[in-house]
Amino acid sequence: MVKRNVLSAEGSLMVVKVEIEAGFEGDTDQHPEEQTCYLEKGKLEFDLAGDKKILNEGDTQYVPSNEKHRVKVLEDCVIIDVFSPVRQDLLDT
């Protein structure tokens, strides 16, 4: 299960709180917006263009524009995602 809550979408920045249950494996994602992920809680494997690393509570991950990425959730997670510019597709859902 993935639960998203848009916390802010003003100017050129968007902040989204994402809650994901352990066992979730995301599809490969790619978007023109830059993204920074802050792992507030949990543990996950982050695959950025084939380079995999484990993120633990307190870690961050930068995702450049149009870079393919995906996650595999190892423990229930709370992630704070920051996008620039605002991802309109997330506002429309």
TrEMBL record:
Top-level taxon of the source organism: Bacteria
InterPro entries on file: Bacilysin_H2HPP_isomerase, Cupin_2, KdgF, RmlC-like_jellyroll, RmlC_Cupin_sf
Residue stretches making up the Cupin type-2 domain: 18-83
Protein name, UniProt field: Cupin domain-containing protein
Species the sequence originates in: Salipaludibacillus aurantiacus
